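Q: Hi! First time asking for a complex rather than a single chain. Here are the components, and I think there are two in total. Is that enough to go on?
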Amino acid sequence: MNSQILLTGEKHGLSEPALHREMQLAPTRTDEPYAMAAKLIRVSAGDFRFEVRDLHFQRGRHTAIIGPNGAGKTTLIEALLGFRQAHLEEAQILGVAAARFLQSTRHRKRLGVQLQRVEYEDSSNVREILDLHQALYGKQDSQVAQALDIETLRKLPYRALSRGQKQRLDLFVALAHHPELVVLDEPFTGLDRAYIERVAHLLRYDLADLTIIMICHSVEELDTASDVVWVCKGGVEYRGDKESLKNRLVGAFHAYLQLDDSDHLKAIYHQLERESATLRLSMPSNNEISVYGTQELDQSIRRLIGNVAFQHFEFGPTHYRDMLHLCAQGEQDA
Amino acid sequence: MLSVLAILTRNELLGFFRSKSALFWALAFPILLLTVMLMAFGHRGSLGTVNVEFLESGAQTSSDTSCKLAIQQAFAGGDPVKADFSTVSNTAAIAADTVRIVFPAGEGPLQVRYDFNGQLAVRAAARVIEIAAVRCAAAERGIVSTDLVHFEDTASGAKPFDYGQFFTTGILVICLMSLGIMSTALSIASLREHNALKIYACFPVPKLVFLASILLSRVVMMLISVGSLLLVARYGYGIDISLWSVQTLRALPVIVLGGVMLLCLGTLLASRTASIKETELLCHLIHYPALFFGNLTIPLNDAPAWIKSILSVIPINQFVSVLRQVMLDGAPLPSLWLPLLALAGWTALFLTAATFMFRWHKS
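A: Yes, that's all I need. Here is the structure of the assembled complex.
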């Protein structure tokens, strides 16, 4: 038995007043509050279908795109950047029509992009790529260079770089010129612990004023974001602030209960099912229960503990990791 | 934007000089191919070299000695076949590339021993020996051969066919094809397959500047490759190509125009391909037929007229034809305005199509 249930009356995404409130809070540098927006994005390739309406990424915010593999996260970004054939309506980048933005070198100077699986020519070396970046943008932020320790790579041939070193170079190319809009695809992939912390610090503090849109698969990446776009089942399930999605999906507390007596366990399961504090309830196996809930789950669990002798018991606050885990599984409201 | 173009071009060139494979195909392979072709076919109008053996006999007369000299003189010009002479004392089996001459002990005929169904060069050498021997015998009897047969030079002005020149110019075009079509197309396809073109698409660099850097760097590579081939051909193998003359200066714009045409064709082939494999297939579909039917290293003199007519409009055939006319025959450029215009037309067509069709990404 492996069932789970989400008990909530909330609708997907932010309600209109909440959205309005968020727009007012978000810092704006021009009249256009969105860094990227589209009335409609529709992509179809073979059996794959992806469609999203009224999508926008707010300026000055760091937005994480999360979701299961193959859900369309990269498709969404690639469609907006013109790398994929897509039907776009009223697509804009930094207030300029997307097609015009991507055709104009003046506008592209305002953009920084890091993509997955990018390989420059094996016969090139790092110095040449850095020279090209300098010639293109005319500036390279020393803080970014320091955080990514780019000087140690400068003299190396490109083919000698490890996966992590290539990732550092790609991040430098995307961030060093302080673009108005940065698009990152899994920025921490391949980085070791020390560099994950450095880049996280860089994004959270030194580059806090940039608009960053990033595809996330790790909690460290998610931690640097304020907003979330949850891509699932060929569309967008949620867009809005990260905390709201966490509250909606996994609430404030999580409990894990293990009991040998399966009848007793089922009784507890039905009891928790009836609790208004329960948001998401599942039985990973015949003698386990996992439950996410609101603040009131604390009281409900306390009542249960008094009556039952559990074989194993865990209780604590929920984390973004839990939310990311659920979103990556493609779990939806039941 | 000029600095960006300069850096992109410099990066491409540095990558070329670091790549052992690129250096081999651009510099070593053409020279290797020229060497092999010259070993197979020789230089100017020669069928090759044959071993001519004189069988040593105890009683050699003065007439034998004079005939031997006459035979050696007959091969002095190397036309149509060259000979290496030696004297042997035994009657061992005769090799396939050898003609053995046996002087008669008494009044018998001179014997010329060789494989009657053997190599063309050997059979031709046997005929040269026959003529020399007959002349020698006639002279002994007081008959001057020119009283019997008189040769008259009806000089048409046409240069004799020279394999060395033919191969050098043909291999020169193969070099340009290799750099212009294969290297350019595969380089672009590799960047696209490895997503680097997506990053270039996000850089503030115009598409034309990016393409220009690829073309410009390869023009430089082409000039280096062509220069090294011509130097080796001229000074290494003594092929009759004048390098330091007005004729060569006139050939330079033809080489550049043809090279740019091939570069544009390479860019066009890679403008939409999604993978290196797909690009390779397209390149091979152009490259190999051109090697066989381009009149590059395989002379097509005996092809039917209708095939020659069809081949004459193919850009690579036009290019090599104009190049030979300018570089070998010394034709002035204005006299070749029509084929040059055709080359320029092909170049414009390939460039325009490549610019319009070019995509940074796979889909």
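A: The interface with chain B takes residues 45, 78, 81-85, 102, 105-106, 108-109, 111-113, 115-121, 123-125, 128-129, 131-132, 135-137, 157, 170, 173 of chain A (CB under 8 Å). Let me know if you'd like any chain examined more closely.
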